[in-house]
Specification:
By secondary structure, the chain is α/β, with parallel strands linked by helices. The chain contains six helices and 18 strands. It has a single domain, classed as Ribonuclease Z/Hydroxyacylglutathione hydrolase-like (Metallo-beta-lactamase, Chain A), CATH 3.60.15.
């Protein structure tokens, strides 16, 4: 199995473009997949640089309904109109980042709903023997504090996003079970717990952002939660690949605890499993 990070917040050694967004290209025995499409069409330019043929992609998974993961979908559709696109029905909510003095729409383009290749997902879904989607993670153990500014607008009111629009992919290939998430808004530990319950075992590999980024600096409370999360992840027999919304300071903090169990993937980096 090969996983290529087509776009992420930091530039990799390949010289690929970077942006606040995430997109993975994944090759298995049966599939050529995209998990998320970044914020813009930059992932398409990176794919060309990396020799990835996006016209050959047969399946797209949108991890959740935020622009930095689905903003590139309209551009992808122009070059590939055949791939099925699996999206949670709830992903078309009216999502906002709301600070003390500002608000910003962070949802995806509503017209995506009308694409004929879109498959709306309500709950867990077994696509085939290789691909399994699961959702409805409700635990709140060590829930990322950055979620508190992420809201769903209903009328004139802003309601805390419960991230029911988030879904997770398990890939079963070559004797391995690989968990792929986007931002892990529901908390990576809660997602792992749900994954283990579903599979009956721990995944061999997890590829996910951890949503620990703080735009106004890190308090001791933030860092304590990050360290505690790392200590809990260290107990798992899983190798973790992360980036995007994890951010550099949290990654370095977690790396001190987890060592080689935790790896950062930049734009253009390739994971061979």
């Amino acid at each position: 199995m090969k996983i290529v990070n087509l776009i992420e917040n930091t530039e990799g050694c390949s010289g690929c473009a970077s942006e606040h967004g995430l997109s993975f290209y994944i090759e298995t025995k049966k599939h050529k997949l995209l998990v998320d499409t970044g914020a813009t069409d930059a992932f398409i330019r990176n794919a060309k640089m990396l020799g990835v043929d996006l016209k050959a992609v047969d399946t797209v998974i949108l991890s959740h309904g935020h622009y930095d993961h689905g903003g590139g979908l309209p551009a992808f559709i122009k070059i590939n109109s055949k791939a099925k696109i699996y999206i949670r029905t709830a992903a078309f909510g009216n999502f906002y980042h709301k600070g003390h003095k500002s608000e910003r729409y962070i949802g995806i383009a509503p017209e995506i709903q009308s694409y004929p290749q879109v498959v709306f997902v309500e709950g867990n879904l077994k696509i085939d023997e290789e691909l399994l989607l699961f959702t409805n993670v409700t635990g709140r153990r060590l829930w990322p504090s950055g979620n508190r500014s992420l809201k769903r607008k209903e009328g004139e009111s802003y309601i805390q996003d419960d991230f029911s629009h988030e879904q997770y992919l398990v890939i079963r290939c070559e004797g391995k079970e690989v968990l792929v998430s986007g931002c892990a808004h529901n908390g990576i530990l809660n997602i792992l717990d749900a994954c283990k319950k579903l599979l009956g075992r721990e995944p061999d590999v997890a590829v996910s952002g951890f949503h620990m980024m703080q735009h106004h600096g890190y308090t001791e409370e933030n860092l304590a939660v990050i360290r505690e999360t790392a200590e809990e992840l260290k107990k798992w027999q899983t190798r973790f690949y992360t980036g995007h919304c994890t951010d550099q300071i949290p990654f370095e903090t977690m790396k001190e605890v987890m060592g080689d169990q935790l790896i950062y993937v930049h734009s253009g980096d390739i994971i061979e499993l």
